[in-house]
Amino acid sequence: MPHRKYNCIPSIAKIAAGLLAGATLLTLVGPLVGETIATLPPSFPRNSAGPLEVLGLPYEEVSFASTEGIVLRGWFIPAEGANAPAILYAPATAHDQRSGLSLVPAFHQAGYHVLLFSYRGHALSDGRRGAFTYGDAESRDVDAAVRFLSETKEIGQIGVIGHSAGAVSAILSAARNPLVGAVIAVAPFTCVSDVWYTSRPKLVPAFILDWALWVAENLRGFDREDVCPLKVVDQVAPRPLLIIHGTNDQRITQEQVQSLFAAAQAPKTLWLVEGASHSQVRTPVLEAMSGDLIVFLDEALSVPRAAEAVPAGVSDPAWWDTGARAGEIPVPF
């Protein structure tokens, strides 16, 4: 029986070409898929009012429209005094109104109205899920929340607290919105393009990450140039700005935060929390620092208060001033 000779080179070439194509596709699509998953909002059961009921505080389920007519929803926890100031909390990426719950007791006790709300596409707010824009659309949602407090609730003094992309949203909103009386920005980035590169996995080439950001911009309808608080942070003044950052933040560099602080105008303050990571600087640090945050907002919003009425914090209330000041705060966690 004659032997047949087979040429296996074409088959090997096809396999190699297939592997190369697959690896290329994975390299291109992987960062985009990962980013989409990382920014998806969490599920939100309709009975999620439970946490507020556990706190034993009165609250209202509220809704208000964004400038584009998208209905946003959240919880309003009223203070005992009708003329009290208010704070609203701007959540980080892939978070909703529940992420601000831990701050409610201290601020309510200090006599503040509190508004917790969810961005478009998050929780029970209307809008397309999976369309997070890193602060572009979200800052307009903050605008709407501030307008709701001012016009519907007739509150005259309003402070905004935000973490990460929520901090960026707070800065972008305050820069154009005179109704914001003070900003506490926790772990803000300078520009979305900067944080994409500083968070880049070592194996992902920079041009691939740039392509993924370009795709995200086009799919979600935002421009990276509009998500750059570094350009507008100086417009927050003369309203006081407090920036808080953890020295062990691996997502947003200390250099970014220092650049943002340098670009801001007085009154401004920078607190560096020694050893805190990106998530730790939000929880448990903000809860531990609640007394200091209230002192800052009382000063910023001209709220009269007896010293003994301020909840205890981790530093002396006199530590904050209205000038350009930076310092480190040791917080146990």
Determine the fraction of residues in helical runs and give it as a percent range: 25-40%
Under the CATH scheme, which architecture would be assigned?
3-Layer(aba) Sandwich
Overall pLDDT metric:
83
CATH class: Alpha Beta
H-E string: HHEEEHEHEHEHHHEHEHHE
Give the CATH H-level superfamily.
Answer: Alpha/Beta hydrolase fold, catalytic domain
What integer value in Å does the Rg equal?
Answer: 23 Å
Number of domains: 1
Main pleated sheet: 9 strands, mixed
Question: Could you say what the CATH topology is called?
Answer: Rossmann fold
Protein traits:
single chain, 333 residues, alpha/beta, Rossmann fold, nine-stranded mixed β-sheet, 9 strands, 15% strand, disordered C terminus
Walk me through this protein's architecture:
By secondary structure, this protein is an alpha/beta fold. The chain has a single domain (41-191, 227-329), classed as Rossmann fold (3-Layer(aba) Sandwich). It has helices spanning 9-39, 50-55, 104-109, 136-152, 165-176, 192-198, 206-220, 229-232, 254-263, 285-288, 290-300; strands at 60-65, 71-77, 86-90, 113-117, 158-163, 182-186, 241-246, 268-273, 325-329. A 9-stranded mixed beta sheet has the order 1-2-4-3-5-6-7-8-9, sandwiched between helices. A hairpin with a 5-residue loop joins strand 1 and strand 2. The longest helix is centred in the N-terminal third of the chain and has 31 residues, at 9-39.
